[in-house]
UniProtKB/TrEMBL annotation:
Family, similarity comment: Belongs to the bacterial solute-binding protein 8 family.
Residues annotated as domain Fe/B12 periplasmic-binding: 29-286
Provenance organism: Paraconexibacter algicola
Signal peptide range: 1-25
A single GO BP: cellular response to iron ion
Domain of life the protein comes from: Bacteria
Keyword entries, A-Z: Signal
Identification of the protein by name: Fe/B12 periplasmic-binding domain-containing protein
Keyword Transferase in annotation: no
PANTHER family in alphabetical order: MOLYBDATE-BINDING PROTEIN MOLA (PTHR30535:SF34), VITAMIN B12-BINDING PROTEIN (PTHR30535)
InterPro entries per record: ABC_Transporter_SBP (IPR050902), ABC_transptr_periplasmic_BD (IPR002491)
Amino acid sequence: MAPTALRTIAATAVALALGAAAADAAPRRVVALTPFTANTAARIGLTPIAIGQTLGGQDRFAPELRGVPRLALSHPSGPNIEQLAARRPQLVLSAPVWRKGHGAMRRLKMPVLESEPRTVAQVATQTRRIGRALGRSAAANRRAAFIDRRVAAITRGIRRRPTVLLVLGVGRTSYAMLANSWGGDVVRRAGGRLLTQGLRAGDGYARISDEAVVARNPDIIIAVPHGESKDYARQAAYLRTKAGWRTTRAARNGRVYVATGNSLLQPYDDVYLTIRDVRRLFLKNL
């Protein structure tokens, strides 16, 4: 056999051996605290041993997650540390919102990986990152490429770009969701023009008065209630008919919408479906 062929065979054998070693070293007992990390792990072939119970809203989880035990989460630390430790995770997939609890996890020898896209473009990037951590890069690369293709398809051919205020309702207080928030980027990718000029907030949420909403006079208001599930119906009704917004173009034209799920508050791996829903249900440009 020619030396070149022998070298090729040897290189291939080494690569396969390294890949097998990496797979053997990859964590198998994984807890995922967010819908994004739980769905991503499941879709690339690893079902978590437990997932976080999302606060409020209705979530769409991958079919593989049906029946997976859920851990209650509470601000600011996330799951009960003893209940989490009892699961003996080799890796905890988490997000910055639960960062205060990560120190205790690490002290108990539970490795933590934070993964939370802040933009639509970061969904594929973070999918690949989780894939590397789980030893499933090939599956993650395929999933990331699929996500990018679907996002490109659902954002193609947008002709109508209405002005939008995306408002987070916390009790009776309103916050404009800016372009640097998850929901703001989703609405922008769906074709909405955010009327948030001059508002600044590092976390993407700036308090806004009813007077400021009226002054900006958006074509569309998308209100997102935030709180306990039991309060959603009352909060949604309040936002849908809020007296302070009655003189806006959106209210006069019947275009004040309430989004009661979590998909504009936190990232999902199937973000292309969120963009589709925003276009179809709210912006009416699909």
